[in-house]
Design a protein that fits this description.
Length: about 500
């Protein structure tokens, strides 16, 4: 019973499991078939979309390719057109070149024919000329070379005479115009410039109230006067001159320091070596400050800007310097004003000319003794302190130490001479004056044909007497010009010098 039941149960279980398996298997197959069917539908749709995208891309690439081919065809067509045009132009040029060659050959042929005709005519003319020359030689009794030499000699003499006459006329006209214009400019410049003339000496007279002060100045055993001379570098002369002490020295700055120091010592009443050194030191500082003030005042009065402080100090030092007795600062200010006026007349920069005029003599006031000429020293200082090259050249060339490179340089030179040549402006010693006259006469005697030379009117005129057998009248004119030119090149002189050449011929006989 139990076994049959157990078998029955197992059989029931097996049959039930089979039924369940069958039912489950059928459901799974139907679901898988449905999924496969859906997948196939999606695959068909995806394939269809990809085919459409591929067709669109292919169509676009085809259009791009067609456009690229069209562009290339257009470029090829343009190149072909250009090549055809160049071929046409080259063909036209070749045709023109061939035509020109033919024309040139034709012209060359004509020229050769004309050249042959000219050669034939030339030969005929030379033959006729030779015959004429031979006939003339027979008639004249001389060869053609001899006649040519005589003719050349005559023409040379005539040309020299005409040239001398023409040179004289040109020189006279040029002198007349130049002198007239120069006089106008110089007179206008001088008239527009008012300057005082002051002659300075190398001594200063110090006035005192009474002669008792002289003893205090000298001091016990001369200690005070020796200390004062040692401190100032000035010789103090105490003699029998009533109520006066003489300060002697060639340096005006030192003389001024000595004068002021002596005045302060006498006013203070304490005069001894220690006090003298103290007062002289203080006075020297005061004079240095005063020098700078003089320089600044001169620069401001002239309207000059941007001058280096050291140059301002040097300009102030010129207040205590003199040249041939003429105050150097006053002379430089006068030259500066005249340079500005004359530069304006010539259309140049008046400010630059005024600057050069003021600084042209700065080389005369060195702090120590200088071995080079004052013009070159002044130029060196101007270059050192950054002055304009034209100003530097005008300073260095105003006494012809260097070559002039601009128009301001001769203006400064001329205005310097004008300022120094005014009556009473400068004092010249007798030896220098006599030497200048002797050099003037010696210069004239160095020319051929000059017998005598005399410097007259204080050197303002040179009279030259020439040998009438050596020089002719027209040659005397040239001699006057040559002498004046040599004087301008080799001599330094105030104002102007008139050169008069005298030629005369005397015939003397005696009736007995």
């Amino acid at each position: 019973m139990d076994a049959s039941i157990l078998i029955g149960l197992l059989a029931g279980i097996i049959v039930g499991g089979g039924v369940v398996y069958f039912i489950v298997n059928n459901k799974s197959n139907s679901k898988a078939a449905q999924i496969i069917k859906e997948a196939e539908e999606e695959a068909k749709q995806y394939k269809k979309r990809r085919e459409l995208e591929a067709k669109d891309k292919f169509f676009k690439l085809k259009q791009d390719h067609q456009q690229e081919i069209q562009k290339r065809e257009e470029a090829i067509n343009r190149k072909e057109n250009e090549i055809r045009k160049k071929d046409q132009s080259l063909s036209d040029r070749i045709d023109n070149h061939d035509r020109k060659i033919k024309e040139a050959e034709k012209i060359k042929k004509n020229l050769n024919e004309q050249l042959e005709i000219i050669n034939i005519k030339k030969a005929e003319i030379e033959k006729a000329h030779t015959n004429q020359v031979q006939q003339l030689e027979k008639i004249a009794g001389m060869t053609a070379e001899e006649a040519k030499k005589d003719l050349v000699a005559a023409l040379v003499d005539e040309a020299k005479t005409d040239a001398i006459s023409q040179i004289k006329l040109i020189v006279e006209e040029a002198k007349l115009k130049a002198n007239k214009e120069a006089k106008r400019m110089i007179l206008q410049t001088i008239q527009r410039t008012a300057a005082e003339q002051a002659i300075e000496n190398t001594v200063t007279v110090f006035n005192i109230d009474n002669d008792d002060i002289k003893g205090r100045i000298i001091g016990r055993e001369g200690r005070n006067i020796r200390a004062l001379e040692a401190a100032t570098g000035i010789e103090i002369i105490v003699d029998d001159t009533p109520e006066a002490v003489i300060l002697s020295g060639f340096d005006p700055v030192r003389r001024e320091i000595a004068r002021l120091s002596l005045h302060r010592l006498i006013t203070d009443g304490r005069i001894h070596p220690a006090r003298i050194e103290e007062v002289v030191g203080k006075t020297r500082k005061d004079v240095d400050n005063e020098i700078i003030e003089y320089g600044e005042r001169a620069v401001i009065d002239l309207g000059i800007n941007g001058l280096h402080p050291e140059l301002v100090r040097i300009v102030g030092r010129m207040r205590y310097r003199s040249s041939y007795g003429q105050n150097l600062l006053q002379h430089s200010r006068e030259v500066a004003n005249m340079c500005a006026i004359m530069a304006s007349e010539f259309g140049l920069d008046p400010k630059l000319a005024k600057r050069a005029g003021l600084l042209h003599d700065i080389g005369k006031v060195p702090d120590e003794d200088a071995e080079m000429p004052h013009a070159l020293l002044g130029m060196k200082w101007a270059e050192k302190y950054g002055e304009h090259p034209d100003v530097c050249n005008a300073i260095g060339a105003h006494h012809d130490e260097i070559e002039m490179t601009n128009l301001i340089s001769p203006i400064v030179q001329a205005c310097d001479a004008i300022s120094g040549s005014r009556p009473g402006a400068r004092r010249e010693d007798g030896e220098a004056y006599i030497k200048r006259l002797q050099d003037l006469e010696k210069l004239a005697l160095g020319f051929e044909g000059v017998e005598k030379a005399f410097a007259i009117q204080a050197g303002r005129e040179l009279r030259v007497i020439v040998d009438s057998d050596v020089l002719q009248d027209k040659q005397a004119d040239l001699l006057s010009l040559d002498i004046s030119q040599k004087i301008m090149k080799e001599m330094i002189y105030p104002g102007q010098i008139k050169v008069t050449v005298i030629r005369e011929r005397r015939a003397v006989n005696y009736a007995k």
